[in-house]
Amino acid sequence: MSETKPYYTLDEVKEHQTKKDLWMILHDKVYSVSSFVDEHPGGEEVLMDVAGQDATEAFEDVGHSDEARELLVGLLVGNLKSSSSDKKPTAKVSTPTAGKSAATDAGVTIYAFFVAAALVAFGAYKFYV
Ligand code: HEM
């Protein structure tokens, strides 16, 4: 659903800092909270403090209820146009090739050990018999 909303840059969000036109960013989403300012149980001042900014930390610090989070749905106006640094590449931890070659190496080592042991045994047999 949120995909259909427009994308705004941080600079665009910053332009909405007045009580009558108040935007803020929460978890990379842009909310217009003007209609809610007077109803906010935490008061109007805290919302004005984060006007046009990313308020995610402040919002989460308060530990808002699920009810508060549901209110956000109706206030959503768009998504934050993220800077390239926001994209975190998923680290590839598994290295199947390396694992395979390690296993193969172990197999070769064991095989070589038995061949060497057989040769030593054969040499000893020849020496003593
Ligand atoms: C649009 C965003 C926000 C919504 C919809 C919202 C909604 C609410 C709601 C419903 C409550 C009542 C308690 C609860 O249900 O958790 C509440 C309390 C509170 N909010 Fe927000 N809030 C928003 C943003 C913020 C921000 C950005 C701050 C801080 C900078 C903030 C600070 C507080 C505080 C301090 C209380 C506690 C009030 C008290 O218990 O006396 N809120 N908020």
UniProtKB/TrEMBL annotation:
<comment type="similarity">
    <text>Belongs to the cytochrome b5 family.</text>
</comment>
<dbReference type="InterPro" id="IPR001199">
    <property type="entry name" value="Cyt_B5-like_heme/steroid-bd"/>
</dbReference>
<dbReference type="InterPro" id="IPR018506">
    <property type="entry name" value="Cyt_B5_heme-BS"/>
</dbReference>
<protein>
    <recommendedName>
        <fullName>Cytochrome b5 heme-binding domain-containing protein</fullName>
    </recommendedName>
</protein>
<keyword id="KW-0492">Microsome</keyword>
<keyword id="KW-0479">Metal-binding</keyword>
<feature type="domain" description="Cytochrome b5 heme-binding">
    <location>
        <begin position="5"/>
        <end position="81"/>
    </location>
</feature>
<keyword id="KW-0349">Heme</keyword>
<keyword id="KW-0812">Transmembrane</keyword>
<feature type="region of interest" description="Disordered">
    <location>
        <begin position="81"/>
        <end position="100"/>
    </location>
</feature>
<dbReference type="InterPro" id="IPR050668">
    <property type="entry name" value="Cytochrome_b5"/>
</dbReference>
<keyword id="KW-0472">Membrane</keyword>
<feature type="transmembrane region" description="Helical">
    <location>
        <begin position="108"/>
        <end position="128"/>
    </location>
</feature>
<keyword id="KW-0408">Iron</keyword>
<keyword id="KW-0256">Endoplasmic reticulum</keyword>
<keyword id="KW-1133">Transmembrane helix</keyword>
<dbReference type="InterPro" id="IPR036400">
    <property type="entry name" value="Cyt_B5-like_heme/steroid_sf"/>
</dbReference>
<keyword id="KW-0249">Electron transport</keyword>
<dbReference type="Pfam" id="PF00173">
    <property type="entry name" value="Cyt-b5"/>
</dbReference>
<keyword id="KW-0813">Transport</keyword>
